[in-house]
Each structure stands twice: as structure tokens, then as C-alpha cells.
Amino acid sequence: MNFDYNEEQQLLADSVRRYLQKDYDFEARKKILATPAGWSERVWATFAEMGLTGLPLSPDYGGFGGGAVDLMSVMEAFGEALVVEPYLPTLLASLVISKSGDEKQKQSILPLVAEGKIRLALAMGERGVIGAPMADKVVLVRGKEAVIGKPTILKSYRTVDGLAAADIRLEKAEPLDGSAIEQVLDFGAALSCAEAVGAMKFACDTTLEYLKTRKQFGVPIGAFQALQHRMVDMFIAQEQARSMACLACSKVDSSENAADRARAVSAAKIKIADSARHISQESVQLHGGMGMSEELKVSHTFRRLTVLLRRFGDVDHHLARFASL
Amino acid sequence: MDLNYSPEELGFRDEVRSWLAANLPSELKDRGYLPKQDLMRWHRILAKQGWVAPAWPKEWGGTGWNVVQRYIFEEELGYAGAPPIIPFGVTMCAAVLLKFGSEAQKKRFLPRIYNGDDFWCQGYSEPGSGSDLASLKTKAIRNGEHYVVSGQKIWTTLAHYADWIFCLVRTDPTVEKRQEGISFLLIDMKTPGITVRPLILMDGGHSVNEVFLDDVKVPVENLVHQENQGWTVAKYLLGHERMNTGRIGESKRELQKLKQAFPEKLKGLRWRDRLTRVEVELMALEITNLRFLDRMRRTGQPPGADVSMLKIKGTEIQQALTELAMQAADPAAQETQALERRYLDMRKTTIYAGSNEIQRNIIAKMTLGL
User: Fold this and answer.
1) Complex ipTM
2) Residue B323 to chain A, least CA–CA distance (Å)
3) Backbone angles phi, psi at A63, to 5 degrees
4) Contact A294, A302 (CB under 8 A)
5) B7-85 has which fold?
6) Pair A162, A300: CB distance under 8 Å
7) What's the whole-model pTM score?
8) Mean pLDDT, chain A, as a whole number?
9) How large is the C-alpha radius of gyration of chain A?
10) Can you tell me the distance from the alpha carbon of B281 to that of B355, in angstroms, rounded to the nearest whole number?
11) Residues from chain A contacting residue B312 (CB–CB below 8 Å)
12) How far is A236 from chain B (nearest CA, A)?
């Protein structure tokens, strides 16, 4: 039992965080969102240079063979910075290919992913596919089966938290073995938990800062016990959520049986959905009118959490799955 | 990062588990209020095995286990339905003596605590001093080789079993800063002038008392640390107390019993979902607790103020479980009364050992800097 990141994980976490702080602050992100495409090729190229795009892939295809724990701190940093580039969609689709594709598919796609030359998306249906507008190929899950192909974009739009998404059609799709889908989705759910923890950390940090600086009645509003206790409950919810993200990522990497893994992931999704809702709502409430404002990052974090907590199965789905295991 | 127990840790857990299976008398399992002789019987079984005070230094009888092993041990005790190790002697008084006591005090009291010869209770709260503990008024006036102690303590758990009480008393009423006039005294409950009166709580049980002290003569050698330095001792003890209030093993057992007792209710989604949410909270609490322990193991530092969250979440979970049990049972059935009494009894958990509101104050101030 240990909660340490190893040296490599720590170095990666530090360098990702440094990069995002320097080149992906709130203003930089706003500029990216204002472009027609809504994502930055330059940022993507940097992710590739840092080895992020190939992180979970086998070294045979230019990757580093990383697991969920290796990716945890990256996703946390992405959550804090509210990254809009289609990282998780690319990652998950590439994992399906690497687990289920034939050698030709792997050879033709995975090295390009690792090098940052192409992006992918993972679709659970043909509507509302996050990352599809910029994806060269889409892995489409149909029940227990999956296919891969180049998407035709029917309608392109942004999600409420600023991600590029589309309704698509896949023509001339090739079949993929679908046996690894559930495992990959659990992997994605665990990483989305880590991403949510990063976003929750920002929401808590910035709210705490606001309580210390915003003055009313001649004192910082954080002097009021009614607000102090609410801030403490946010802090506790964040710590509890972080614990569950650790559990989910660790079990995704180490569990030998699928039920054990699914149980941890569903439990994490339940806890993180509840915490994300609680923290996002309270962070806006404690900011008062400013919390509603487009100008403040916290309102964008609110939007990201609102979407994140329902991805990879909402809380009802995971309550049912947890109880069935 | 690996949240699975190592093979060594699993081996240790199995050792504790099988020892408990062989040595925990079934008549002591899952009991609410235990008579003193039952509590002490279990204490002595553990003492004989050498496991009654794992956290103590080895020279005084500690096991030398690391924090994770200690956690596993406590969890297994709770999960097996073992009686509690009453904390006032083994955990609290001993922690104080080990940190602040003189050699003579350690030699005099620690072995007797270990062997279960002395039963201790804690004299902190007073009728006018609950959350605002530093306002306490019980006074101790130095008279030659004695302090003469007068005042009243309240909510004193198991004072009716106790041979000794450790007390916070006011030795200097003149100082402006109230915390600076308090001392930490050890008082023999057989001393003339001490009266213990039961306080029956709403579940009908007798576990707490009022303790009246009327010109009680206490030898000065029973002062721990220095005169007027008792608040330092009390604060040190608070940190210790909070680290052990999660009751995770016990809650795991309650949860499992609940699932077994009400299989029909589990088919209904509303109750099932409420139960699942509590189960998930408990999983999160366990990992959070382990993260704190891991931090202590890595840094060698005592727990920070943020461990208060373990007390808050642990007690909320304990209460939620009793509520779920009561909601599942027939409200008119006689068997339900035991569940109802437990529900009533567990309301105390968010009040005692520093109410959950005080715990939130502590986190707000010490951890968040508000």
C-alpha cells in the first residue's frame, strides 16, 4: 500500500503542470476557444513532444506503456487548466485499437497518434461524439462490437464546457474486436475522475482565495462561520473525491478480475459525481454574482464539472452497476 | 501508487484475523454496552497476546508495528465485532504520560494501564464548558504537597467504572489568557470528596456521568507536565483522539449486517441507492484515512489538523448506517427497538470528542487559514 508517485510520474506531473501554467492559462485558453476550430494544433504538438499522446501505448508503436496511475496527474492538471484539446477521446480510441485491432490497424494508426500527427475519438453512438470534428478516425462502439472509420461530420458544435463535438456517420468502417471495450471505458471513467479532481481542486482553491480577499461588512467574508463551514465541506468533498480517483486508477491498473475493477470505478464515479456537483455549485454560490460571470474561470470550471460528472455513465448508471456487482 | 495491500500486509491481516477468530469469545461480540468485567476480560486477552497497546514504544509494551499495520489491526478488531479498547487509559492517558509524564509517573501508571489494573476516565467537559473548553472552572488550589480540587465535570464516559480520572483544572484564575491557567491532574477516584452520578441518555443507557469534586486532595506528584501548562497537553491529546475516530472496521461490519438483515429492501431502488451512497462514502473514508497514514509514515510527522475530517465523515457514516437500519425495519416490531436504540445512541458521535462543528472550525482555521 502506497500513495507515492514514482520519480518518472512526479517529473511528468511537474512538467505538464509547468507547461500549462505558462502557456495554457485562462487567457490563452480563451483565445483557443475563440478560434473556429476551438483547439490548438500547437498545444497538441507540445503534448506529443512531452510524450503524452503515446503514454499508454506500447513502445512497439512509439508509446511508453503507461497505466492509469501514470496518467492520473496529467489528467488532474488538465482538469485544473480546463484543457479543451481532445486528449481523452484520442487516448481511449487508441487503447481500443491497441487492445483489439489487427497488426495492420495498429501499425497504421498508433505511431501517428504517439507522434501527435492524428487525433481519434471514441463514440458510443453516432450522436454527440466529443472530439469528432478534429478526429482523423473514430472508433464507434455498437453494443459489444466496435468499428473504426473516417467520420463524416453531419453537425458540428461545442459542448457547454467548450469541447468540440459532432453528430457523425461512419462510412466504410472496418470491424474491430469489441472485447476490450468495457475495460477501456473503465480506464476512461477512472481518468475522467482524475480530471474532475483537478477541476474540483481549482474550484476549491479559488473559492478559498475569494473568501480571504472579498470584503463585506468591513471584513473578509471568510470570517463568517456560515461560509467557513461550507468551505470546509467543499474541502472534505475534494479530499474524499481524490481518494476515490486514486482507488479507481490504481484498481484499473492492478485488478485481475473485471468485477473488482468495475466496483472501484463505479464507486469512484458515484462519489465524484456527488462531490463535483456539490463543489461546483458551492464554488459559484460562495463567489456570489461574480461566480455567475463569464469573466471568471470558476464559471468555466462549473461547466466542465457539470459535463464531466455525467460522462462515462451518470450516477444512476453507476449506482445500478455497483449494486449489481 | 498501489492501493492494494502488499503480500506482507495481507499476511499480517490474516494473522490478526485468524487470531481473532480463535480468541475473541463469541459472547463478547457485537454487544452495545458491556459491563466492566467484560471490557476488562477482553482487555486482558489482548494484553496477554501483547496487542493491547500497539502504538506505545516497544519498551513499554508496544508492538513496533508501523501505522498501516496498526490501522489494519484496528480495522480487524472493528470488523470482527470485538469490544472496544476503552481509549481513556491506553490511548489517551498513556499518550500524555509518554509525551509529558515524569519517569516516576510512567513507571507508576503505564504498566497498570497495560495490564488492565486501572480503569481511566476523562474529566474535561463541565456544565458551562463544552465546546468552549478553555472556560472551565473546576479549581485546584495548591496547599503544601496537595492540590485541593473543587468543581464539577460532566459527560464523563464510564466514570462509574473508573479507578482514575485525568482532569483539566484551573490552577490560575488570574491570567488574562484563559488557556494559560489550566493544569492536567491525575486523580484517584477513591479520594474522599468525589461523587459520581449517572446521566441516563435518550436510549435508556448509562454510559456517561456527572462527577462532583468537593475539596478533593490530590498529591502534587499527580500533576502532569508543568503547572498552568495543561492546555498544551490537552491540545496534544486532541490530535491523538481525532486520528482514531473513523471507526471504519466497525462501520464495515454494520454495513454487512445491514445487507444480510434486509435482502428484500435491497431490491427496492431507493433504499439500495441510499445504502450504496453510504458504502461509497465509507470506501472513500478508508482510502482517505490510509492517505493520512501514508503521509505520516513518509514524513514521520504527526497528523495535521485536517485529520478532523476523519472524525466528521466517520461519525456521519456511523449515524447514516443506524438510520438506514431503522428505516428498513418494521417500526412497530419489538426487534426493531434494538436498532432504534442504536440510532438514538449514535447521535452522540457527532457531538462528542469535539463536536463536528468544532472540527469544522479547526479545519477552517488551521488547514484553510480562514
Assistant:
1) 0.96
2) 20
3) -100, -165
4) no
5) Butyryl-Coa Dehydrogenase, subunit A; domain 1 (1.10.540)
6) yes
7) 0.95
8) 96
9) 20
10) 20
11) 236
12) 6
